[in-house]
Write a structure and sequence with these properties.
- The structure is a single chain.
- This protein has 317 residues and is α/β, with parallel strands linked by helices.
- The protein has helices spanning 55-73, 89-97, 108-117, 166-178, 206-214, 225-229, 233-237, 261-273, 278-286, 300-311; strands at 4-8, 19-28, 40-50, 80-86, 103-106, 121-127, 134-135, 137-142, 157-160, 182-185, 197-202, 220-224, 239-244, 248-249, 251-256, 293-295.
- Helix 1 links the parallel strand 3 and strand 4.
- Helix 2 packs across helix 3 (108-117) and helix 3 packs across helix 10.
- It is elongated.
């Protein structure tokens, strides 16, 4: 068997803004020499990351985390920590199904895809990435513009932050779709938009997104509440919030569905206590300012339903 952590890098060297998986080659305890029944020993622990660029830098970024997990999971014999790269979320789902990946860490939308759409994983814990337990998306506009309510966006273009962003794309887009808005992606700011539709484009950078709204090149923009908090007071004063989406965990840990319960418990225990260990706490802080891992609010079933409510659509996307 194999045991694996996964996270995703969406910008730079995110401890996860990539997908990552910790792979373990497992020997069942009842068959391993010197082991007692019910115990499991791992030979390797491999971190798999979804990243298309800067792969060497990403690998180095996760090195201390992998080595820490390898030492903590070791009992009678040493465990080797390794890192491998995966190109897509679909491939990660395949690795989970093939038992080559067992754990991963991701933001809400990729987690929803891997667990509920591909059916490859199960939620385990919440991760306080950037010191945040939860976050949500904001849809905002120019305070002095013609947009005063969401309905005024029809026939206009809005800007999302990044195609792969939960808070800067999927949360606001599904929020609008569930409220009856028909969204249509456009290739440029000046594209024509049908009267009954809302066009959208991607800014790919927070500064550009905000500038487009402030200069009225787009009718509205969308990003996370923590992005909004980083704006200077002048820019904040020139913007007005049209809507806020529901809150979701900033990041989550999931396991493959058929992972041995004894391994799930070991992994859960290490992660829950990592912030209480000086070395573990330092490694977490180096990884996007992670504060800790804790239990999912309401449990796994309730959290799964929250993700379903946020992202499910009967339309093919």
């Amino acid at each position: 068997m194999t045991l694996m952590f996964v996270t995703r890098q969406t910008r730079g060297l995110a401890f996860v803004s990539a997908i990552a998986a910790l792979l373990f080659d497992i020997i069942p305890g009842s068959q391993a020499m010197g082991q007692t029944p019910g115990r499991v020993e791992a030979k390797t622990i491999t971190l798999g990351i979804v990243a298309e660029i800067n792969q060497k830098e990403v690998e180095e970024h996760f090195r201390d985390f992998v080595r820490y997990m390898a030492r903590k999971l070791s009992s009678a014999s040493a465990i080797e920590g390794r890192i491998v790269m995966a190109p897509t979320q679909a491939r990660l789902a395949g690795l989970l199904t093939e038992r080559r990946a067992d754990f991963y860490m991701e933001s809400p939308h990729p987690t929803y895809l891997i667990n509920s759409v591909y059916g490859a994983g199960k939620l385990l814990l919440r991760r306080w990435k950037g010191g945040m337990a939860e976050y949500h998306a904001l849809i905002f506009t120019n305070r002095n513009g013609e947009i005063k309510r969401l309905e005024d966006l029809r026939g206009k273009i809005v800007a999302f932050e990044d195609p792969g962003s939960t808070s800067g794309h999927y949360l606001p887009k599904f929020f609008l779709s569930r409220r009856g808005f028909k969204l249509s992606q456009k290739s440029q700011i000046g594209a024509n938009v049908a009267a009954g539709e809302v066009g959208y484009i991607f800014a790919y950078a927070q500064d550009k997104l905000v500038d487009w709204v402030l200069t009225k090149q787009v009718a509205a923009g969308a990003f996370s509440n923590d992005d909004h908090a980083t704006l200077d007071e002048r820019k904040k004063s020139e913007l007005v919030i049209l809507a806020e989406t529901d809150k979701l965990p900033r990041h989550m840990v999931s396991v493959r569905k058929d992972l041995a319960p004894v391994l799930v418990k070991r992994l859960e225990k290490i992660l829950l206590s990592m912030h209480q260990d000086p070395e573990g706490r330092l490694i977490l802080q180096r990884g996007d300012g992670t504060t800790k891992f804790d239990a999912l609010p309401g449990g796994e079933l309730a959290m799964r339903q929250r993700l379903l409510d946020a992202f499910y659509s009967s339309e093919k996307k």
